[in-house]
Design brief:
With 296 residues, this protein is an alpha/beta fold. The protein contains 9 helices and 10 strands. Strands 1, 2, 3, 4, 5, 6, 7, 8, 9 and 10 form a 10-stranded mixed β-sheet that branches. Strand 2, helix 2 and strand 3 form a beta-alpha-beta unit. Helix 6 runs parallel beside helix 7, helix 7 packs parallel to helix 9 and helix 8 packs antiparallel against helix 9. The model has no long low-confidence stretch (mean pLDDT 94).
């Protein structure tokens, strides 16, 4: 008997997009799953239209928007699986995508987390994620291996990776029991990086699984670039570094951010008259200034 996998996705005002994901999940060849859809306080278009279409799916409603981490965390208490698979609702999956992810966590030493190869849905054979680089201690940024490269098999080796990808990630229940849930303080962006860092400190390994493929429509909820996205990327970039790096590296990062990022971004947004971006950037910075000083 294959181990039970609990699949979780979060809907926010996008029932058609969520329906497309659920239809792709109906075609997978892995025999032992349960599926949960969390409606994250959708103000206009929730999940009611999906209930009759997908009678075997478990639907959960939140009274308010809990963010990416909070919405996913809401479903966890209902899950029975040995493994939990978190999928963005703007993804679609290959029929055989799940078995390689499970095999990785079942066989690799201390494996706790894994992500598949992720390709852009609307671009032919174009890679978004094939593993990640390390977090740069100066800039507070990582990078996705293979991003915007045509898939010619150059990233077909499963291997350890510093960070999994939040759009598609299989997590062992042991991680939940040892390292806890995603930190819902992040709300949106960087939460999976933080989760990886915490799990790795607890002795778990994190993997890129090349034999598994998921397609990502990317940023359907927030837009490919928007003031909302900029706010959370700025806010959580700072918050992640404060939580996960030792004092010396935090000071290096804060020096870079203060002397380079702040003037560069502020001047750019002023010159282009993008005052909405300027406000979002500074709001993300100020959020961190008001947080607990113990995080420095």
């Amino acid at each position: 008997m294959q181990p039970l996998v609990s699949i979780i996705t979060v809907n926010y005002d996008q029932p058609e997009v969520t329906s497309q994901l659920l239809r792709s999940l109906q075609k997978i060849d892995y025999p032992n799953t349960e599926v949960f859809v969390v409606d994250n306080g959708s103000p206009n278009r929730g999940i009611d239209s999906l209930v009759s279409e997908f009678p075997d799916t478990h639907f959960i409603k939140s009274a308010k928007n809990l963010g990416f981490a909070g919405g996913n965390n809401l479903a966890i208490e209902h899950c029975k699986g040995k493994y939990l698979l978190f999928l963005n609702n703007d993804t679609e999956v290959a029929p055989d995508f799940l078995q390689p992810l499970v095999d990785c966590l079942e066989t690799q030493p201390n494996a706790g987390m894994a992500s598949p190869k992720i390709k852009f849905f609307h671009e032919e054979n174009m890679i978004q994620y094939a593993g990640s680089g390390k977090m740069n201690p100066y800039t507070g940024r990582s990078f996705f291996v293979g991003n915007r490269q045509v898939d010619k098999g150059q990233f077909d080796t499963t291997q350890l990776t510093p960070f999994i990808h939040g759009a598609a990630m299989l997590i062992s229940r042991k991680v939940l029991q040892t390292s806890g849930l995603m930190d819902d303080e992040f709300f949106l962006y960087y939460e999976e990086f933080d989760w990886c860092a915490r799990a790795q400190r607890d002795g778990f390994t994190t993997w890129y699984v090349a034999e598994s493929v998921v397609w990502h429509k990317e940023s359907v909820s927030t837009g490919k670039y928007s003031p909302l996205k900029l706010y959370y990327l700025t806010r959580n970039r700072l918050y992640f570094m404060r939580r996960n790096f030792p004092l010396a590296q935090k000071l290096m990062f804060l020096s870079f951010f203060t002397l380079v990022s702040v003037p560069k971004n502020s001047l750019s947004f002023l010159l282009t008259r993008r005052f909405d971006y300027l406000n979002a950037f500074w709001s993300g910075l100020l959020w961190n200034i008001t947080r607990k000083s113990s995080l420095l």
